[in-house]
Amino acid sequence: MATKNILNVLNRKPSEGTPIWLMRQAGRYLPEYREIRSKTESFLDLCYNPKLASEVTLQPLKRFNLDAAIIFADILLISEALGVSVKFLEGEGPVLDNGFLDNNLYDLKFKDDKINNVYETILNVKNSLPKNIALIGFAGSPWTVASYMIEGKSSKDFSNAKKWLKTQDKLSKLIDVLTESTIIYLENQIKAGAEIIQLFDSWSGLLNNNEFKKWVIDPTKAIVDQLKKNYPNIPIIGFPRGACVEDLSIYINKTGINCVSIDYNINIKDMGKLQRVIPVQGNLHPNILIEGGDNLRKSCFKILETLKNGPHIFNLGHGILPQTPIKNVENLVDMVKNF
Ligand code: CP3
Question: Number of structural domains, the chain?
Fold first, then answer.
């Protein structure tokens, strides 16, 4: 049996209790993160600095009894590797240089230049990680990264990206380039030491069933198929945020992922049904973690109770928010570990 509990769950082997990690576990709710972040010019400088990015990756593990580290980076680094630059503006989120849409869509080419620093971060972290903690590498899924590249910024409805759904050829081309680049990027992460991969598809909920199949399921399957050829033992977690239960079932059956991450809109009973097919993670609302107290306790135990007889990794239904009290995270991890 692997000594890493989270790998046991992903491999459907017996595990000692429920493993836990939290999306965005390294981030602004931690004073030690804000301290390091204040020393760098920009968020991207931090992502591209292997020494500091490693330190930040390890910060939450020094405080909490977590089962995995997730490498500190961002899903939009791949856009930069394709030559479409990204800036993170204070209070505004990402801004992407989407002039490429009119001109050189066909010139987009993955160049591992600055992105090589991510692999170095992985090597650093791997060397200092305790033996029982697993290292998660990640990428955004093609549809979600394409949405940001087309829109040029964060948006509630990504209306420009949705317009592209009608220009099938252009969108196909962009999704294909992203799929190929993501495969290279993730293979390099695995070579550097990532033991688990998570694919973030934060905006899959914008799509109807047919669109979901074409722009989420097909590219995800292509990525999983290719990674499994060379790295059959690296588990892949898929997070198609906003997908309905029906779409989640198809996603699970068609893509070949090893575990599905569930957002907070899915009913816990439905999550239980999905767990009969595949290991599950997620679901706790990040606002409940902010609130803490009784509601956190009840919600946490409801998830643990419902899922206790199958493979389950405890996580949130989306990333930790900056205003989350550290004490609540401590309590949550204790509750899960003592269950
Ligand atoms: O701890 C971890 O989870 C690892 C690091 C990580 C970050 N972003 C760091 C980050 C991971 C896995 C991500 C994924 C990511 N990035 C997603 C998918 C998950 C999701 O949230 O839906 C998306 C959509 C992005 C793109 C992104 N990055 C946006 C829209 C923003 C701005 C909004 C915000 O939360 O600030 C970011 C910035 C970002 N990524 C921060 C961090 C710690 C905050 C930046 C800062 O510290 O100044």
Answer: 1
